[in-house]
Structures
1.
Amino acid sequence: MKKYLVLFLLVTSPLMAYSAKKEMKINRDPNLIKIRQQMSRMESNYFNLEILANSKVLNFDEVNRTLEDMEDMARKMRASSARKELDQSLKDLSKQIGDLKKEVKQEDPIHLRKGIDEIYQSCFRCHSLHASGK
Ligand code: HEC
């Protein structure tokens, strides 16, 4: 029994060390760190929109400000990211944000809900295309 345990450890520890090293390498990639930071901001803005859309009194000025911040983030990502394959998805996201910004002027809660759902589809599509390791 002990023999198997030793054998098991001998086989698995180099594998674990290898994957830990690989993980560290991924985390040190400055471009990925930057993308993740920009995405964290995108995420908090996105959830801000969700909360605003579910409030009793809709604050369309705040919705507009949040959309502007997201638009700005998408623009910065397009300008700075070394991953040019993200460009088209970022363009799509910017277009959706721009469309919603126009619609928000009518202050219609149904349009707002629909627009937020469409934005989320863009987030989801890009993640399924470009997540780590793909
Ligand atoms: C242009 C493609 C693209 C779009 C559009 C996009 N993302 Fe991302 N997102 C990424 C990439 C690439 C990563 C980094 C994935 C990785 O770690 O490998 C990421 C990571 C994230 C993360 C993890 C951040 C972290 O701290 O690790 C969150 C949260 C996130 N995105 C939220 C969003 C939200 C919300 C939206 C929509 C408003 C969105 N993303 C739209 C490409 C995109």
2.
Amino acid sequence: MQRLQTPNSKPQRSSKSQAPLALALPRPWFGTWSLVFLWSLGLGLWHSPAVAAPAKPNLIYILSDDMGFSDLGCYGGEIATPNLDALAAGGLRFTQFYNTARCCPTRASLLTGLYPHQAGVGHMVDSKKGGPGYQNDLNKNCITIAQALKPAGYRNYAVGKWHVTPIPKDGSEPSRHNWPLQRGFDRYYGTIHGAGSFWDPSSLVRDNRIVTCVSDPEYQPKEPYYYTDAISDHAVRFIHEHAQQAADKPFFLYVAYTAAHWPMHARESDIAKYAGRYDAGYEPIRAARWAKAKQLGLVDAKWELTPAANTWDKVRNEAFEARCMEVYAAMIDCMDQGIGRIVAELKARGQFENTLICFLQDNGACAEPMGRQGEFKPRAEKPSLPPMAPTDLQHGSTPKQTRDGWPVRQGYGVMPGPADTYIGYGRDWANVSNTPFREYKHWVHEGGISTPLIAHWPKGIAARGELRHQPGHLIDLMATAVDFAEAKYPADLNGEKITALQGVSLRAAFANQPLPRAEPIFWEHEGNRAARDGQWKLVAKSPGGKWELYNLLADRTEMHDLASAEPTKLRELIAKWEAWAQRANVTPWPHAPQYGEVSPDAPAKKGKKKQ
Ligand SMILES: [Ca+2]
């Protein structure tokens, strides 16, 4: 096992005996600030320009991981998300906002305002490379929102999952060329890699320094470490420190939660809130979400609900499946509690009114069978592996053991939640999460790419609790940031040409006007392809799959393929998609078959099932 060695390594103490430095940090300030507040009132300084909020808004973009369209309470779900629901009630909910169907491409697109292939991240950072669109590391022809906003006077903070540059899994020294601090952020706390234990995340980094959750002297919570809370605590900390160090400047804060990506890990106190909630299975939950989404106006009652992925009577182990969803709900619940703490800190600093908060999800719900296919492994009587020193590192997503020596277990029936389990909640609950849409993470049918977007900004958005139906995409978030920050998106930087912005500012949609988008929105991931042009959607599944065509106004659940009935529209959209694929480095792609080609090995596989 590799041991962490950095110049900043300190002598280690056990987490239990270590003073809770981080959580203790904000508290002394409350007293101090109360005194300052009373003093300033007495002297009539409350309206002093020195303490006035900066005119430019702060921007907070919050991204969650692997969640479905209907999980949040304000999007039809039964999971308790009162803090996000309150932001929705005080702001806007977009009903047709889109991501790119997968972790890395979504982050690359959100951060740069480009389609992911234009930023070099057409696939995952640890997958095989291809042409310029598939170097799978941010390229030199893109900048992040932080890089764009810095010249406009912003300080920039990032917390949580980064996942736009590779990090070696063999423990060799990583290149930091695309880490947040080299990409315009002033402070960073989070994980460079994409997934891992919530109890002991791998690739954990503070600024440019690799840390472990138990050896990091700057953050030792009173409760056992849990990554979602660590992300929330650091978002709060950065807002707090900003007020202390740079109150005259606006800030951009990027908060990338890993909830509710596998593994299903959550605090027992949060899981307990959902005990028994899912015992009746998929059907009543899905039906309730569909009904509530219709009642909220998020979906059209005329659309046909897609078929269910499974029925509860076919489930092998009901207690296990119900527990998976209880933990999933608890993960989201905990994230929402953290967002509540972020909001409270903004209010305490007088920044809530002039901060644009956007919340969205990075891809549709996840059907990957992580940890569910092997044989059930019971927990041993006692830990069977050597305990880890606080500076010991485990690399990659799936740890072999917990720090106190329990082997990490997978297999159908392993009850998720604790640190010695590594389980996904599976396709059938993902289908419920994506109510009412088809498909999942990876695919670009509506279930893979549809996300809530909550936008809240009391000073900048007049509407309260309204819906917006304008189609939007991740590429619009850079354009929105540049617009409201009064920043200039550069044509070149350090001698490198910067690819032109692809999105449009959401300003018009905030005022309930149409977005001035000149061309369709496009997708490609693993050969899954789509274009959205007004009410029309062109979409195909797999590199060799045939094109389908849907009228989303009448049929957003993609149940009635109009490819044969509307050949002119079909050809028009295919031509637009092909032109985009060429200019955006989508083709040639690293998947087989190449776009437009028949798989070369198809005839050779006689007797095998067809693609
Ligand atoms: Ca994801």
3.
Amino acid sequence: MNSEEIKSRVKEINESIKSLQDELTKIKSECSHDNYHVGFYSWRVGVVDVVKICDYCSENIGLPSKKEVDKFLEEEKKWK
Ligand SMILES: [Zn+2]
């Protein structure tokens, strides 16, 4: 690829990413989040929380109860 091709392809890819992110946001906003599991969620590099994650759209839908966190951490231990 020459520099013009790179420039044009990068622009195309960035537009696709934006369009897919918009679709993802729309799908997540329409999801009823009827089922969830407790799992690790990373807000940013180095920060990991235990949260409720929707089974369908993978959205972080809030903090689990203490009981749910304890159960999740107990399950995690079994795999180590
Ligand atoms: Zn959902």
